[in-house]
């Protein structure tokens, strides 16, 4: 039987909001490890925003830290603007990812977060979340786990850019997208790239021409099937080998 207070919350939110208890990607997000009572407390502070359209921003560099954002669906890219005025992409975030961690140190966002497609997010007021985590060890532990994942991903990205050649970088990028889609219950072998080849090149430190040439090479060698933005992994073993067999986070 569904608790009455949960029914009331659903009615108040219009009857269409998906709550933490029912979310299919909760195992990747903050609710993981929380018991039902803790989930209810977390659920009560979350604001489920309207769809964010392609090109819209969640926050901009310089904005005060007010909330963290858990992606329910869609893709968000994070980026900074260099002193020369150029965009530098720092991450691609999928459903289940949390964005905004890098603002905690100075209580100000150092980067931008922009939707690459129509996306849904849960807005989580940071001060309230911080207070709640002080009372709930499971929540605090999960927050630390998620932040540790961010640090690990940054370290792996440094390794990717400093030690891998162009072919290995792109292979690692495709391989890890495949792995992340699998974690979310989607096909690891067939998926659509929501980012442009220019975005991928920017992120990996490669030119658009290099990305296009490498995709063509992967297709010729029977590793990938490429049709526009659609990717089919035809030889996972070769892709994994080319990627160095070491997962490199792309969030």
From TrEMBL:
SMART domains for this protein: cNMP, HTH_CRP
Keyword annotations from UniProtKB, A to Z: DNA-binding, Transcription, Transcription regulation
Presence of the UniProt keyword DNA-binding in the record: yes
Cofactor requirements of the protein: [4Fe-4S] cluster
Gene Ontology terms for molecular function: DNA-binding transcription activator activity; transcription cis-regulatory region binding
Limits of the Cyclic nucleotide-binding domain: 30-113
Domain HTH crp-type residues, every copy: 164-237
Entries under InterPro entries matching the protein: cNMP-bd_dom, cNMP-bd_dom_sf, Env_Response_Regulators, HTH_CRP, RmlC-like_jellyroll, Tscrpt_reg_HTH_Crp-type_CS, WH-like_DNA-bd_sf, WH_DNA-bd_sf
GO CC annotation: cytosol; protein-DNA complex
Domain of life of the native organism: Bacteria
NCBIfam families: PRK11161.1
Function, as annotated: Global transcription factor that controls the expression of over 100 target genes in response to anoxia. It facilitates the adaptation to anaerobic growth conditions by regulating the expression of gene products that are involved in anaerobic energy metabolism. When the terminal electron acceptor, O(2), is no longer available, it represses the synthesis of enzymes involved in aerobic respiration and increases the synthesis of enzymes required for anaerobic respiration.
Protein name in UniProt: Fumarate and nitrate reduction regulatory protein
Provenance organism: Xenorhabdus bovienii str. feltiae Moldova
Organism lineage: Bacteria, Pseudomonadati, Pseudomonadota, Gammaproteobacteria, Enterobacterales
């Amino acid at each position: 039987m569904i608790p009455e207070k949960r029914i009331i919350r659903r009615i108040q939110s219009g009857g269409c909001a998906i709550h933490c208890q029912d979310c299919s990607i909760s195992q990747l997000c903050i609710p993981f490890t929380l018991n039902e009572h803790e989930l209810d407390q977390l659920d009560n502070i979350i604001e489920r925003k309207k769809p964010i359209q392609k090109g819209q921003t969640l926050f901009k560099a310089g904005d005060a830290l007010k909330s963290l954002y858990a992606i329910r669906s869609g893709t968000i890219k994070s980026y900074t603007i260099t002193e020369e005025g150029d965009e530098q992409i720092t991450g691609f975030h999928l459903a289940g990812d949390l964005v905004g961690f890098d603002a905690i140190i100075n209580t100000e966002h150092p980067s931008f977060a922009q939707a690459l497609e129509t996306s849904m997010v849960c807005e989580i007021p940071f001060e309230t979340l911080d207070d709640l985590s002080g009372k709930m060890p499971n929540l605090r532990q999960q927050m630390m786990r998620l932040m540790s994942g961010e640090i690990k991903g940054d370290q792996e990205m440094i390794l990717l850019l400093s030690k891998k050649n162009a072919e290995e970088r792109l292979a690692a990028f495709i391989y890890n997208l495949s792995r992340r889609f699998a974690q979310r219950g989607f096909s690891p072998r067939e998926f659509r790239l929501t980012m442009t080849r220019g975005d991928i090149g920017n992120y990996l430190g490669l030119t658009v021409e290099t990305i296009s040439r490498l995709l063509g090479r992967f297709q010729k060698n029977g590793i990938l099937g490429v049709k526009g933005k659609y990717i089919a992994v035809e030889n996972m073993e070769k892709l994994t080998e080319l990627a160095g067999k070491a997962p490199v986070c792309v969030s």
